[in-house]
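forwarding from the other thread:

> can someone predict this with S-adenosyl-L-homocysteine?

sure thing
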Amino acid sequence: MGFLPVFLECAERPCLLVGGGPVAARKLAPLLEAGAQVTLVATRLSERLDPLLGRLSALHRREFQDSDIDGQWLVIAATGNRAVNQHIADLCAARAIPVNVADAGAQSSFTLPAVINRDPIRIAVSTEGTSPVLSRMLKSRLESYVPSAYGDLAALVGEFRVQASEVFAGQRERRRFWESVLEGPVAELVFAGRVDEAREALIAALAAGPEQKAPAGEVYLVGAGPGDPDLLTFRALRLMQQADVVIYDRLVSPPIMNLVRAGAERIYVGKKAASHAVPQGGINALLVQHAKAGKRVLRLKGGDPFIFGRGGEEIETLIDEGVSFQVVPGITAASGCASYSGIPLTHRDYSQACIFVTGHLKDGSVDLNWPMLANTNQTVVFYMGLQGIDVICRELIAHGRAATTPAALVQQGTTPSHRVLIGDLSSLPGLVAANDVHAPTLIIVGEVVSLHNKLQWFRPGQSLVGESVLSMSDYFDRDHPPQTDG
Ligand code: SAH
């Protein structure tokens, strides 16, 4: 059973601390910081308490007496004597006074978390007493992650909270206003230590009010990477969490969709089992329509939007329509699949170049520059090549690449269903047929593939993604199975 995380208002409250050692000193500091009126009962006092003694309400240099807990609002037992601690815990339990006990033997009704303090922001870390060391480690990580000026920012924003809710009556308007403050120039000024200028900028933004601040919609064209949510960029995640609408297709995995702001409208434009995908023109129109309605539109794409992602076509329309946008690169399937399969795309000894090509079948053939692709000492990565695998292998061999050139199929790369099949140009089509290979699958051709045996490291059974291993259908939606292109 978990503890309920709460923040207690302790100002002016009578609190009792029993014990005078270093542990007691550690517990005393946060009590005093919260403004509690602390009575300390201790036979001996550690010198660590010296700087704090002046701030006590009362100090009794003697053994604990039962009557000490009379009238106390909260008690901490840190005597170093288990029996005494337990006795105090029992007394408190009988009178329903919250008690924290410094040793594991006794029963605490609350714990003191490790705290990251960005006054007025406080982040508390608790392991519910299982590992204070781990709490402290997490605390130091968070310390470096949360800029110290966040407290100043929160304090500044707090000054204008009421005023802003008068100026921006609508919830969505208000949220956008605060987001523009917390992620825009006002926040940047605070982070640069220019709080007065930040306050002026905030006052000006409030004076301009909703009319002049009519939200201009925009489009974020964001690469979601190949499947593992850990491979998102920080910027992708930030934009995913501030979007009003998300327009996504089949390559965006559900664990990644789970990271999109919960309130965002979701529009699926991929291929459905019985019907066709929304045509490109329709997607372009959707982007424009929602952006012009003042929304922040997240166009979320598998991999990188500028690699076989039609990103160029989409932003061309946005430019024509005067809609502002930004493009966020993602890890493309070639990078993700190669890394997670232990196949370096280039290698001093084997491969001096790497080519990304589309293996998409048109009228039963793949129209590519085969003589160039068949050169040695290079790696060729085929996207959408599953259906055309016979043609691809045949043409490469016909144009001079050895039939024994190593080749890999990487299915659902970087996800818990990540699967690698290794063969060569002559055996690859047979591998597809024999192993029920399906989309999305990437084909990697070149001597570097032979390194897989030695360099493979990602074992999806021991998932990097979490403790529970997700099934394939958790990653790629079975209701919307990928259809044509491999
Ligand atoms: N913009 C995307 C590519 C879209 S084309 C990117 O940069 O990755 C779609 C093709 O990408 C699929 O047919 C498949 O060949 C490949 N692909 C995408 N994600 C993949 C994955 N997780 N595993 C294997 N191949 C993938």
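Residues 226-227, 251, 301-304, 307-309, 332-333, 337, 383-384, 410, 412-414, 439-442, 485-486 surround S-adenosyl-L-homocysteine (CB under 6 Å). thats all i got for now
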